């Protein structure tokens, strides 16, 4: 499943970079594609998770890339089912339920000796007038500075991610990604459907080694708040200059010719796959029945908790035999 998701992500990047003309500009620290990482990023639009593929393919491991998402998205026909199979983390905004989900996912990764690189949006939602008003009210109620370019982070989930990654020894670094859109910011799905893609997406990367992250929950909270304050200042300058400061740029990008070759491969693979599937659905009754059965199974499974339920059963069996 990782291979199929990887190929789909490659195809998505190919479509919006080569067909829609989106350019990714990446600056900052050196990162490593073989580490267990918690990637934290400001949430400027609903499509940050999509455009970050451009960073991940050039600096991290796209095969091991996972995303923490709102639970409702797992029920989206097709993409939601694929993300369930890929091991994405779906959160309910119910703390007791989400604690269990996060713990079980990391136990599962540990059981597989898997090195995930997980994207988490500590702000919890994208920046809009409505969410900014809520963030400003939070700032006023707590006597802290209101932000213009980011929302105040919700640190409880972030702290628990750090704690669980430490507990299962799957924690090498935190990658702090600041994303900015110098021209044309597509806020929601309607913008994308109208072809309103950004001309450029800029990523500024700061790598923090796991050993440099505080141990106590209180200090992790303070650390996250400090990172977000720095992010606010960085974005303030970015939207003045339309670029991030690159005087200390150390980033090492993968060979672009290899990436372009991967784009070609993904394009050929999915073109053949889609055409073949279309022909088989028309002329092969067994394929139509298989497609109907698969859809029915995913609808049923999603109604009762999704692929996560199967993961829970596997972990319970593993405990039983330990």
Automatic annotation (TrEMBL):
It comes from Mytilus coruscus (Sea mussel). SUPFAM superfamilies: Glycerol-3-phosphate (1)-acyltransferase (SSF69593). It comes from the Eukaryota. GO terms for biological process: phosphatidylinositol acyl-chain remodeling. Its EC number is 2.3.1.-, 2.3.1.51. GO terms for molecular function: 1-acylglycerol-3-phosphate O-acyltransferase activity. The lineage of its organism: Eukaryota, Metazoa, Spiralia, Lophotrochozoa, Mollusca. This is LCLAT1. The keyword Signal applies.
């Amino acid at each position: 499943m990782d291979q199929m998701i990887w190929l789909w992500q490659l195809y998505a990047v190919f479509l919006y970079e080569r067909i829609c003309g989106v350019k990714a500009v990446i600056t900052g620290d050196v990162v490593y594609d073989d580490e267990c990482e918690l990637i934290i990023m400001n949430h400027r639009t609903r499509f940050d998770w999509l455009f970050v593929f451009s960073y991940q393919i050039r600096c991290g491991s796209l095969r091991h890339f996972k995303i923490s998402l709102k639970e409702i998205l797992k029920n989206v026909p097709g993409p939601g089912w694929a993300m369930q199979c890929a091991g994405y983390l779906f959160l309910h905004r119910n703390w007791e339920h989400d604690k269990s989900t996060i713990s079980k996912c990391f136990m599962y990764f540990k059981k597989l000796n898997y090195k995930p690189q997980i994207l988490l949006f500590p702000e919890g939602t994208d920046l809009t007038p409505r969410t900014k008003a809520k963030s400003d009210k939070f700032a006023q109620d707590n006597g802290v500075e209101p932000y213009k370019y980011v929302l105040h982070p919700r640190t409880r989930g972030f702290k628990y991610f750090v704690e669980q990654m430490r507990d299962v020894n799957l924690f090498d670094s935190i990658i702090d990604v600041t994303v900015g859109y110098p021209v044309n910011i597509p806020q929601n799905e309607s913008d994308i459907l109208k072809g309103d893609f950004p001309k450029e997406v800029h990523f500024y990367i700061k790598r923090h080694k796991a050993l440099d992250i505080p141990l106590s929950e209180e200090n992790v909270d303070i650390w996250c708040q400090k990172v977000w304050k720095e992010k606010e200042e960085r974005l303030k300058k970015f939207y003045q200059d339309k670029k991030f400061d690159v005087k200390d740029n150390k980033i090492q990008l993968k060979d672009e010719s290899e990436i372009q070759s991967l784009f070609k491969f993904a394009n050929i693979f999915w073109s053949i796959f889609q055409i073949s599937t279309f022909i088989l659905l028309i002329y092969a009754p067994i394929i139509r029945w298989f497609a109907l059965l698969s859809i029915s199974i995913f609808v049923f499974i999603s109604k009762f908790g999704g692929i996560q339920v199967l993961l829970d059963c596997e972990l319970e069996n593993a405990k039983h035999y330990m």
